[in-house]
Each structure stands twice: as structure tokens, then as C-alpha cells.
Design brief:
alpha+beta; Butyryl-Coa Dehydrogenase, subunit A, domain 1; Butyryl-CoA Dehydrogenase, subunit A, domain 2; Butyryl-CoA Dehydrogenase, subunit A, domain 3; 3 domains; four-stranded antiparallel beta sheet; 12 helices
Length: 388
Amino acid sequence: MIRDRSRLESLLATLRAFVRDECIPLEARIDRDDAIPEVLVERMRALGLFGHSIPTDYGGAGLTTEELALVNIEVSRAAPVFRARFGGNTGIGSEALIADGTDAQRRAWLPRLASGEAVGCFALTEPQAGSDATALRTRAVPAPDARGRPGWRIDGVKRYITNAPIADLFTVFARTDDAARGANGITAFLVPRGTPGLETGPPYRKLGQHGSPVGEVHLRGCWVPEDAVLGARPGLGFRSAMKTLNKQRINLAALCVGPAIRLLDEALAHARTREQFGQPIGEFQLVQAMLADSATEVAAARALVLETARRRDDGEDVTVDVSMSKLFASETCGRVADRAVQVLGGAGYLEDHPIVRLYRDVRLFRLYEGTSQIHQISIAKHLLRGDA
């Protein structure tokens, strides 16, 4: 749903210029230094990038799902690290709070997340709980503090948490009822950095997406008050997580389309200028086939993502469509990246070319927010039940 097309087009034009003029020229430096310059983060704050999906009542832009998808396609034409820096606040780091937080919790955190003053992260995955997110070993038990105030003590470890090393607010998921099975008995807690017992590890060294800090969250006797429970409703945390992921996977699918467009553009530029046998390699039919297949799949992924976003805005149940979008867009991006390297030949294997960095960066898309195999299983289950 696009509410004001003129306003949206102006926003997209601003983002397009920001990506072209300020982000892309810094890609090689950020990949080398594994850090985004703070001056660029300040520009992100000034442009309002941290608050795109946060409601206007809390200082955000309140974009619809379709508008946010179009924004994500635009900003992800630069290296994914840029969007990862503010993306937690416009997606997975704020969505549970938007969907299920109390008014007091929203007022306390959403304006700070929207402005970029605070950074949010989503602490769900654990060493033994990834694709099977219900297998949480992190535990929270009722426990008063030294002054007798009621609250909870949390113990556990979270792994592969984007922005954990720099986050100010952690949405932590912990089992609070051992008698309940599966998704039942899991509670979400809002835990600020600085809470005694919460520590974060150093950023991982990763294959790609250098400059996007990812790490572990350690909770050792971490005490939080009763009002830290998301929505003041214990036991409903897994439902909040699924709501968050259902929307975030649309965002991620859109984030797969932008790099695929960029990769195709880079491959086309090379095919027009690189000559072999006295002519541009773009004149060879087998090269043309790779370019044509890539363009077709990118167009199909973009259409699927935007249609799913529109249907979500219309209030439809898009659970299966979201899985299809994330599966198809991430796999498409991987195929386009591989073909782009192939079109470049030897140049596509040298570290100084953008395609090489993007090739490493986009490999993650098929792993997080549900692996491709998990989405295949989910889609098939819905099909076999007849509800898709």
C-alpha cells in the first residue's frame, strides 16, 4: 500500500543519491576496516533512516510494508552493511515492541530507536536453538531483587545476534515455563545495555558483511524488573517473535532484490566493455543467456516481494507468501551473484572488485531469518495441509 506516491518518490530519490554518492564510494574502505565511519552513521540519523517503520506517534516515518520494501530495495543496492547498521531499528529490533509492547514500553524506547540514539537487537538464536527456535535453553525464573522488588533472573547465551556488540536494547527470549512444550512458555524481555549480568562478546570475524557487528549475548544472573516483560504478558514471547519474523522476512526478501540489481548492473557494465575475439563479450550468446536469466529472476523476485507486501498491508495472512518471498529472493540473489562472477571471469575473483565483496555479502541471505531449507519445509507443510 502506497499512501502518498509523491512523498515516497521523493524519499526514494533522496535514498538513491545517498547510496550512490555517499555509501558506494566507502564500500572498499568499510570492507577493509570492518567499521562504518561515525560521520556516515550521523548522516543516516539525519536522513531518518533508523525510524522508517516506527509509527509517527513515536517519531518514525510509519511506512507501510510496501513502502518499506521499496525503500529496502533502494538502500540495499549498496553493500548490505549499510542497511544492517540502521535496519535493526526499522525491523527486527523494534517490531516486537511495536506489535506487542505496552504503551509505556513503546514511549520509553521507540522514539530513541527512531532517532538512532539507541540501537536495538533481537536476541533469539542460541548455540542449540537456531532453525528450531523453540529449543531455547535460556531460562528466566521469578526472583525478587535485594530490596524485595519482584522481577526475573535470566541465564543463558545468545549467538549470531546482529548489532549485539553495539546494541542499547536487547529483546531477549527465554523459557519461563518448563512444563509448557514447544512454543508455549517462552517470554520476551526488554533488557537495556548496562543491566548487571548482561554482557556482549566481541564481534565475530565473518566471511562477508564486514562492518556489521555480530556477536554473542551472555546473561548470567541478569535481573530485570516485572515491567521488562514485553507487553506485560509472560509466556507469549514466541508469538511475538513469529510476528516480528513474518514482517522482517519481507524486509529481508526486499534486501535480496537490491544487491541482485546492483550485481546485474555491474555484470552488464563489464559485458559492454570487456572485449574478446574483437568484440564485447556481451555479444556472445552464452553471456547473454546469463544476463537474461538474471534480469528475469530479479524482476520476478521484485514482483513477488511487492505483491506479498501489499497483501500484508491489506490485512491478509501472508505466512506462506512470506516464506516463498524470502526463499525465492535469497536464492535468486545467490544465483545472480554467481553468474556475475562468471561474466567477469578472472576479474570476478579479485578482491578489488565490488562484485567480489557482494558475492561474499549476499551468501548470508540464504542462512538467516530461516534457511532456505526451513522455508521449503514450511511451504510444503502448508501445501500438504491445504491452507496455502
